[in-house]
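Q: How would the structure tokens look for this protein?
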Amino acid sequence: MLTVIAAGAVTTPHVQASSTACQEMQFPVSVAGLPYTMAGTLCTPATSGGTVQVLIPGGFYNRSYWDISVEPQIRSFRRAMNNAGYATLTIDRLGTGRSSTPPSVLLTAIAQAGAVHQVVQALRSGSEGPRFDKVILGGHSLGSAIAVIEAATYRDVDGVLVTGMAHRLNATGIIPIFATFVPAALDPKFSSKTLDLGYLTTMPGTRFDSLHKPGPFNAAVATFEESTKDVAAPTELVDAALLGTVTPFTRLVDVPVLSVMASNDPTFCGLLATDCSSSEALRRSEQLFYSPAAQLQTFVVRGYGHSFNFAPNAPEYHNVVARWAQSTVGA
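A: Here is the predicted structure in token form.
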């Protein structure tokens, strides 16, 4: 039976602060028969069991989205999950952060999912370091589409966290965001990287309006956003939209799924798009796109835009994820 986590039912789960050891990881992966490296940070709390959350950032973000340093006690998803007893691996999609930079044309959501699959296999076998018995795959936006494709294709994870992605796009909200995309090679921020013209980024000073409104403006957050922004390839954005949203690839996911959206997400939410007015409304809007095996649960973060890891009320969402993970997969 489909269930829903209602906004009014949020309670703080039993968590405890613990010492956490973090280490840089480099995973060898292959795309189109070519060798590359996917980088990430593995953080393991002293209280960790055998479950790791592999967290994939969305377009124009890297792993820093999951570990925001501005008031991290509020905004760091990584820190919240470690405190709840889960190991986390925050990764850089290929082309971003410290991961390899293939020709942009090779970067599709399918290719990114294949690379993530190789990382998941390494975590399960312990071939590159610590070994984990269970894997929860989480994503934001483009990262959620990649997580869905990986879980549906390879069936090697125990749960999927889908954030910032739904199945009905809001065309009027997304077109102004597309207008902010420019070739990353023209942005001085990426002058130290060799990027072909297929790599895109966002124009300076546009991210708050596109990704955060109507959330309250925070100068430190705006600075963090510009200093950590990253790139995306059009090819991965296109097939992510087709396979993650337009085509119900989610119907093939046969493990528990938690879908989280912000009430004011301009890319998916609206009158003729996804109903994000409440957690129950989101469940009604999304349930047809998931199989019964997904045991779909939903939650809506109130009063924020697309990148709601930055929301002042993010701890409510962290608590929901921790409770869902414990009840469906376990730590």
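The radius of gyration is 18 Å.

Confidence is low (pLDDT under 50) at residues 6-17.

Upvote if useful.
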